[in-house]
Amino acid sequence: MATPHNEAATGEIAKTVLMPGDPLRAKFLAMTYLEDAKQFNNVRNMFGYTGSYKGKEVSIMGSGMGMPSIGIYSHELYSQYGVENIIRIGTCGSFKKHVHLRDIIIVQGCCTDSNFAYQFELPGVYSAISDYGLLEKAVALAKEKNVNYHVGNILSSDIFYHADKNSPEKWASMGCLGVEMESYALFATAAYLNKRALTLLTVSDSLVSKEETTPEEREKSFTAMMEIALEIA
Ligand SMILES: O=P(O)(O)O[C@H]1O[C@H](CO)[C@@H](O)[C@H]1O
Ligand SMILES: O=c1cc[nH]c(=O)[nH]1
Fold first, then answer.
1. Class of the 16-232 domain?
2. Complex confidence, ipTM
């Protein structure tokens, strides 16, 4: 059984899938952490692997950048491959002075400038939230590992290069900790299909201090976040 975007056969994908935006990060993670990793997808170079971590079967697959992309892959994983949990492991920009480079954000909910949820024809505005069970486990593991973490709301945006230069300040004033581009669509898709989702983000740059990490660091570092996600799985 294949979909237009995933060539995996039935049974080749685990119940829990970790999804970084970057398919090369998916490959790096699978090669670094999974035993007996087997590649199940190569369509559009959106690499996906299944293997085992501490005896548990887990899959890792790239989501691509933006809500349309994660909307497609998460919908297919949940509805066609029997996936129950998707944990996005991404990078984000910080909106707050106290949220530093390399800190982890455990995402509780998302605001958005996207119209992704219009398809559900709700008589109001949909608030996308993560699964509390997954969130609780992530918080416990972050405490155990003694990492700098924050739990809260973020902006999940359709836009990377914002024309409105005051946008970060406005969202920060409403309590958003940072910005990325996929979680709202992931959480909404999970809710629609009665599945579970969580996002863990490592701060790759600060919209306050203007500091940033290198592309190589983004691809290969951020190990604390990856280990938390693997242990939840
Ligand atoms: O590092 P990833 O998971 O791709 O996440 C962030 O990085 C990309 C933008 O550079 C967007 O996908 C954003 O959400
Ligand atoms: O979406 C993103 C990700 C990292 N940094 C940003 O400013 N935006």
1. alpha beta
2. 0.98
